[in-house]
Amino acid sequence: MTALTRPEAAPASSTGRRIAAAGAAVAIAGALTNALGYLVPVIGARQLTSADLSALATVLGLTAIASVPGLGLQIAIAVHRARNGAASTNKISIATAVVSAGALAVLAPLLVPVLDLPAHYTLLAALATLPTVLAGRWLGELQGDQRFLRLALGMAVLAVGRYGGLIVGLVAGAGLTASLIGSAALSWLIPPSLAVLGRSRKAHVADAIRGREVLTACSATLAMLVASYADLLLARHLLTADASGAYSVGTVLTKGALWAPQVVTVLALPRLAQGSRRALRTALLLVAASGAVLVAASALAGGFAFALAGGDDYTHLGRYAPVFAATGALYALVFVLLNDRVATATKWASAPVWVAVVALLVVAEFIAPHTLAGVMWSALGAAAVALALSAAGRLRRR
């Protein structure tokens, strides 16, 4: 009996080790991405004035939102590849990158007065957006093929390209403008690096990816990132420079809770594209557990969390730490459900999140007080609305 069971156990054990290794690699790459992303405002809080810190946070928010189509491109390519195999991605990738960067450049005249931001900051953000979005092509191919070790390395390349120049500039005391220029220049090394890393021997046999697939994924991820950054932009618009700078420190905790469990969604997406309900249940449980731990930690050490994110000047805001963390934890669950909606070709996949964004804008602008706490609680409510609507939609599809 034992002899008969051993041959079956070995492959299962080998598969488990491969999954664990892939998960660890992607988790490390995700941690590096988060660490570099969080390091920027942390260094900025110590090197810049409150006004420049708020401007930096706003530029990062704009760049993140404009770069969302890159994540949508990655998801669309990964889903298509997991279902159908290799396909040509050149034209759709270039078109997506050009439109994303071009939209930010075109909107610059409107963003400058609304956000009180110098025009050249917005243009530098657009310049860095194009290569960042284009990276989604190779990352999507690696994810769809479940080549997670190479995917992890590609994520690390993207993270260094996005944040490396900015970090070096801030540490060197070069000032905000020079640091943004260095960041935009370094980002253009991302595409050629990923092109080498993502080489594949697979022939292009599947139908080319349709624009509608990419548009659906881009809309979903854009909704997600707009929702997670909308409170930061509202704080810039509604609060004083000092208050919005303090709020930007709190959003470091939000982003930590949102992106800390991203490895779960990355590994689950190919399985979700193949209709695995077990993958969805497992992903939700793991992400929920991560959020619970981070919220509890923020409640116990809120002052320390704010001091770590922005310095001793922000320790007194520690009582707000669990709320910022809870907002990110709720959005992390929404992100899992959003990926599932895209992977299963659900119509109007991003609708629940867009509804939450509109609710946040209305409440923060016209109902809630224009204070740090007012914007913060409005953001938490919007995250809860997005999760409730996403979960209700999933239950209806069962």
UniProtKB/TrEMBL annotation:
Name of the featured protein: O-antigen/teichoic acid export membrane protein
Any Gene Ontology CC annotation: plasma membrane
Main subcellular localisation: membrane
Keyword Membrane recorded: yes
Parts of the chain that traverse the membrane: 21-43, 55-80, 92-112, 118-139, 151-172, 178-198, 214-235, 247-270, 282-308, 320-339, 351-368, 374-392
Keywords from the named record: Cell membrane, Membrane, Transmembrane, Transmembrane helix
Topology of the protein relative to the lipid bilayer: Multi-pass membrane protein
Keyword Transmembrane helix: yes
Location(s) in or outside the cell: Cell membrane
PANTHER family according to UniProt: O-ANTIGEN TRANSPORTER-RELATED, PST FAMILY PREDICTED COLANIC ACID TRANSPORTER
